[in-house]
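step 3/5: co-fold with coproporphyrinogen III
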Amino acid sequence: MAYNDRFIRACFKQEVDRLPVWYMRQAGRYDPEYRQIKEKYTLLEICRQPELAAQVTLMPVRKLGVDAAILYSDIMNPVASIGVDFDIVKNIGPVIANPISSRQDIERLKPIDVHRDLQHILDTISILDRELDVPLITFAGAPFTIASYLIEGRPSKSYIKTKTLMYSDPGLWDMLMNKLGDMVITYLRAHVDSGGKAIQLFDSWVGALAPKDFERYVEPVITRIFAELSDLNVPKIYFPGVSSGELLPQLTSLQAEVIGLDWRVSIREGRRRTEGKYAIQGNLDPYLLTAPMDVIKQHAKEIIDMGLETSGFIFNLGHGLFPEASLEKLQELTAYVHDYSAEVLARRKA
Ligand code: CP3
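step 4/5: write tokens
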């Protein structure tokens, strides 16, 4: 089969014959085959076996017919290399053995050594680079989102310890952001050197900040990450996570190609708030996927119609897939986005 570069083209706002589709967390527990593999191995055990991690990455690409693969990994993986012990615990998420709380803890964080500690991830990327006929997206967690796990020790709703450190010791906070920023830059560069074709920076929880705090405490490191990776000839995506609509006007000068939106801001409004600077990715409410198919399609159609108002749109969810989603509905949704957008684009050309 010919290589499908629709996703890359849309990231660069080039012409496409139909809209590209992929889903955040597209390898996951909604798929019975994935659940079977998870009965034998934990997430981290899968990640340490490149052949298996590549197979799990490929599963949704084959089953759903999506236009991009996303590396099967987790945003926590690189922190093992800077000296943080963690586990991904069933029904909780990332749990840190010794959460960070002092200056000493932050000073102790080591520079990442991808080849020494994370070669298995690079090997997975190399395997996928040979096997895929769609682009491979690799990713990292952004400094705020990673810091929230390192400091809270586990998923949090309030981010109270994180904000306490941020507001009470801005100098120390900046040191932490910069150390995590260095980690992200080195890690993502190694991904692209190993065959990754696009990169996404997941800042899942940064929407917890007010715009002026984002500007002071987070934006400098995000700007630096994209600036330092700007020589890489792959599309770069910033996903500011959930509830980040108020931050969008602040994101107009990143050296990135794509901004991801959650479902609270429409595609049209997201483009307006970012001054049309980026391609847009999103933003179906993942929890809508439990609704009847005609309701799902009705919402998808609205997103597609807005997406097609200008070039540069990638259909996705507003956040990750969850275990209750249905494989059949996802297959039908993917086909619908492809077919309906192809029809609109063909009509326009005629
Ligand atoms: O998208 C994909 O298919 C690639 C795989 C992927 C995983 N984690 C595997 C995973 C990706 C892109 C991630 C990123 C990630 N991890 C994020 C950013 C995206 C987002 O959702 O905002 C975050 C915040 C994490 C941290 C994390 N890992 C949490 C909060 C959890 C628990 C959530 C849950 O659903 O239980 C995890 C575990 C995790 N990482 C799972 C998967 C498929 C689910 C549990 C499992 O299957 O073992």
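step 5/5: annotate
The beta strands are 69-70, 86-89, 93-96, 136-141, 198-202, 236-239, 258-260, 279-284, 313-317.
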